[in-house]
Write a structure and sequence with these properties.
Strand content: under 5%
Number of helices: 5
Helix content: 55-70%
Number of strands: 0
């Protein structure tokens, strides 16, 4: 039961981050400020703005995200897809789907 709850929370964060990118924009690096274009990590931060994340949710989210990156770091992925944050939003959605199906 707890595992299902953690997966749901992690997936919700990723989906909110994808929505954030589409709503406010994305930038390759630099956190930016909330409500403005943010980097990939900044979008995740805006998706869960309560300060400190539940460590179990963070571990699950990043473990699943790293699996989706196929050996790239998130920074490398950002550099690979400079032209658009849409690719990052889709990555977050794929990761959320993997959590839901896992």
């Amino acid at each position: 039961m707890r595992d299902t709850r953690l997966k749901r929370q992690a997936a919700e964060i990723l989906l909110r981050a994808a929505d954030y990118i589409r709503r406010y924009g994305w930038q390759e690096e630099g956190m930016g400020k909330p409500g403005a274009p943010r980097c990939s990590m900044g979008a995740l931060d805006s998706a869960c703005p309560r300060g400190e994340w539940d460590p179990a949710v963070a571990e699950l989210l990043y473990e699943t995200l790293n699996g989706q990156l196929g050996g790239l770091s998130l920074t490398q992925y950002n550099h690979k897809f400079l032209q658009s944050g849409e690719n990052v939003a889709r990555l977050y959605e794929r990761t959320a789907k993997a959590l839901a199906n896992g």
